[in-house]
């Protein structure tokens, strides 16, 4: 069973993508969109200040259990996104999804199938998938 929302999104992208239809444009716009997600996240720290980054090298005991590792490794983020930053980041993520769907269209890949395959991989690997 296909996901209707995901398929509809991918079809809409296909209908709207006119100006940047070349695979070269899609690939470069996908990279640009990714960079804009990064940039808007960084701006939440450096311009707005609703988020802070507090990072240092973790100390990992040799006999640390998996559950202890989950406590040791963290996002290094402090605070919460304000509504303005959240809105901006969501818009940039939307553009990222747009160009990912466009790439899927060009390569005849169903975006929902990508989600399903990745979910199956995660389910199979479970905690052995340390990324
Ligand atoms: Zn903010």
TrEMBL record:
<protein>
    <recommendedName>
        <fullName>DUF1573 domain-containing protein</fullName>
    </recommendedName>
</protein>
């Amino acid at each position: 069973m296909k996901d209707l929302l995901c398929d509809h999104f991918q079809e809409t992208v296909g209908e709207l993508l006119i100006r940047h239809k070349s695979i070269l444009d899609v690939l470069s716009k996908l990279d640009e969109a990714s960079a804009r997600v990064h940039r808007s996240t960084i701006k939440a720290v450096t311009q707005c200040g609703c988020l802070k980054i507090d990072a240092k090298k973790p100390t990992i005991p040799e006999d640390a259990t998996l559950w202890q590792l989950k406590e040791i490794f963290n996002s290094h983020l402090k605070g919460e996104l304000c509504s303005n930053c959240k809105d901006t980041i969501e818009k940039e993520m939307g553009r990222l999804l747009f160009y990912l769907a466009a790439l899927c269209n060009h390569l005849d890949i169903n975006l929902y199938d990508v989600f399903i395959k990745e979910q199956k991989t995660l389910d199979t690997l479970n905690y052995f998938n340390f990324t």
